[in-house]
Specification:
406 residues; alpha+beta; L-amino peptidase D-ALA esterase/amidase; Ubiquitin-like (UB roll); 2 domains; nine-stranded mixed beta sheet; six-stranded mixed beta sheet; 11 helices
Length: 406
Amino acid sequence: MNERLALNECVGGVTAPLGVTAGGLYCGIRKAKKDLALIRSDVPAHVAAVFTLNKTQAAPILVDKQQLEKSPLCSAVIINSGNANACTGERGLNDAWEMVDVSAQALGLPREQVMVSSTGVIGQYLPMEKIAAGIRQLSAQLTREGNKDAAEGIMTTDTYSKEVAVQFTLGPSVVTIGGMAKGSGMIAPNMATMLAFITTDASIPHAVLQKALNYANNKSFNRITVDGDMSTNDMALILANGLAKNKPIKDHTEEFQLFCSALEYVMIKLAKMIARDGEGATKLIEVLVTGADSEEQAAGAARAVANSNLVKTAIHGADANWGRILAAVGYSGIDFNPDNVEISFGDVPVLKKNYEVVLDEEKARHALVQENVVVTINLNQGHHGARFWTCDLTKEYVNINANYRS
């Protein structure tokens, strides 16, 4: 993080920035849980987004890509949970456009300024009469205090809503960034990896905003994994409405660096919440790789360890099985010398260079029974590092996903 950045966390999630309202309600998509959310900017905002790289893409992803081609501005985002509207063909595409149109009409907005998102079960059609009625009702009750309802409205198997907001100064202006996310299962690191909606009152042009989102995404949502499965609906989206009245942020400036650092902070906070709330999880696991030849090499090694089911089950059982970690680095595809690797759990070293085992089982187990576990892997061949976040893999994960459609 930029050393000149002074961040203050604040309340409000996506409605913390000036000129943003939101809300959420139950419209009948699923059983007795909020299943519809709406975010509104009082003025048109510059918008940037990243989407899943899955070849099978849900209807809302296809619609949003077309919307971005038409306009760099967005004033509202409509989101439903409980139904992914994925693999639903022409009908699903028409339904996504209907969600856009109903929202635009209810809010008095141009069609091209509404984005749409869905999450839930794949291969089922949306109950559009219920959703359209819900959108009309919700559009009339958006408030600055509606962030919590909105955050609940996008949840699926999440056990808690995920929100964060921060404030910082750019020149004489106070800028706010707020966000909410959902994600618990079907999380794999490759562009977005869940749903995230971020708002800011910063003044920043579309192209510069997209660059900032790409940067922060690669440091955050592209660095988490729960089960290695990439969804059909993954996206992260940011709206910037300029109401903070700061001097417009330009690329290659100190202001851009400060904004990127603040955005990275918000997105990492949300990413870690998602990893901690992995389906059935009991622990947040941070995999830190140091001593690599490049950040890319470090990230490759960290990704392999974080995706390893064997590593995650061992940590769930507080088993200091360092061999599984070294094996995962070995198949990660990076170039390294296994003789030089050192591994620690928290501040407890377990492996030194030349395979010298220094494992104290009791101390290692104590480090592994914590709710937050740090696995440090020093490759001892360079000066670069990277972090990944994941969770332990439990029997409850199997139970949840064996009955997901029930």
